Amino acid sequence: MSLSRNILKVISSKFAALVITLAILPVLTRLYSPGSFGILQVFASIVAIITVVSCLRYELSIPLAKNANQAAASFTLGTLFTLIFSFTLLGLVPLFKSKIARLYEMPELEIFLWLLPVFVLMNGLEMAMRNWAGYKKKFGAIAWSSFGSALGNRSLSLTWGLIIGASAAGLFAGALGKSALAFLLLFIFCGRALFSAIRNAHLNFGMLWNTAKLHKKFPIFNSWAVLFNTTSKQLPVFLLGFYFPENIIGYSVVGFLFLAKSIVSLPVRFISTSVAQVFFPTAAREYNETGSMDKIVSKVFKRLVQIGIFPLTVLIFLGPSLFGFVFGEEWAEAGVYAQILAPWFLLQFIGAPLSIFNILNRQGTGLIFTIVGITGRMAGLLIGGAFFNPRIALGLFTVFSVITALINIALKLRLSGVSVLWGAKILFYYITVSCILILPVKFLSYTVSDLFIVLGTLLGTAVYAAILLKVDSSLRIFISDILHRL
Question: Which of 42, 335, 340, 357 is 20 to 30 A from 210 via CA?
Fold first, then answer.
C-alpha cells in the first residue's frame, strides 16, 4: 500500500501540472511560431544529452545505498561531477556556439547557448537531490517540485509572450524558470536534512573513492547506455534539423517535432516518470530484503498499460485532427508526427520506469540494447533524410525503436520473474479495447468537423475509464485516492 500511496503523491502533482500544460500550451502555440519552438528544441536536446550523464549516473546509486553514509557519499559524487561538467562547458561554449548555430541555420540559437552550463548545473543538481529525496521517502517534496516547475515554465513563457513579445527568448525564459524552480523547491524541502546527513557522514576522500568503486558500473556501463539512449531519442531533432533547415522549406520541421514530442511524451513525463521515481527505490529495497520483485513489477506493469494505452492510441488514429483543433491549423503537421511517434512513446511509457537492469546490476545488458537501438534509429533517419521526407524518416525511426523496446520490456519481465506471455496478453487486451472505442471516431472524422471528433474522443475516454473502473477494483481505490488528494 505504501507503493501506491507514494505514487499517488507524485502523480497527483504531475496531474495538476498536466492540466496547467494543456491549458496554456494552445495559447503558446498561437503566440509563438514553429521556428521559435524549433530553436528551443535544438537547445533542449543538447541539454538533455549532457545533463543525463552530468552526475556520471552516481545519482542512481543513492536509492541503492544500504545506509545513510553511503547515500550521502553517492550524492556528493554526483554533485562533484555535475560541477565539473558545468565548468567544462563554460570553457567549451565559446568554441562551438557559432558552429552549432550555423549548422542548423538558426542565428538566434548562438546567444542562448551561453545558458548551456547553467541548465546543466541546475538539472544535474536536481537529479541528484531528487534521488536522495526518493531514498528518504520524501515523495511529497518531489511532487511539489514537479508541480512548481511545470507551473513556472508555462506561466513565465505566457507572461513573457503577452507583455514583452513572442520570441524565442520567452520560451527560453520559461525553460530556465522550470529548471530553477525544480531545484529550488527540492532544496527548500530537503536542503536542511541533506546537509545534516552529509555532515553526519563525515565524508573523506577514502569514503568517496570506495563508493565510486562500489558503484563503478554506473559510470562504466550505465552512463554510456543512457548517453546513447538519450542521443538516439534526440536524433530526430538533430538530423531533421540538419536535413530540413527553416530557411530551405519555409517552416520549421523541428518546431513541429517539438510540439509532437511534447504532447506524445506527456504520459511519459507526467505519469511514467512519477512511477519510476517511486518504483526504483521501492523495488531496490524489496529486492535487497527479499531477493525478488516479481509482485511489484507485475503490479506496476499492468497499471502502466492500463493508463498509457488509450491516450496514445487516440493520437495514433486522430493526431492531425486533434492538433489542428487544439493548437491551430498551422500545427496540423505536428499531429502527423505525433501519429508516427506514438507507438514508440507508448512502449517507452511502459518500459522506462522498470529499471530492472540497474537493480540487478546488469548495466552492461542495458548498454547493449542501447547500442543496437541507436544504430537502427540512426539508419532510419538517414534513409528518410536521403528521400528528403521527414515523415519517412520518423516512420523508420519509430519502427526500429518499437522493435528494440518490445524486446527490452520482455527481457525486463523475464529477469524479474514475471511471465512474458502474461504481459503480452495484458498489452493485447487493452490495445484491443482502446481500438474498439476509437475506430468509430476515426471513421466519423472523414465526414464531421474537428469539434465533433474532440467530443467523440472525450466520450471514448469516459467509456474507457468506466471499463477500467468496472474490471479493476484496485484501480477504483487508486483513482479515488487521486481525486481525494487533488
Answer: 357
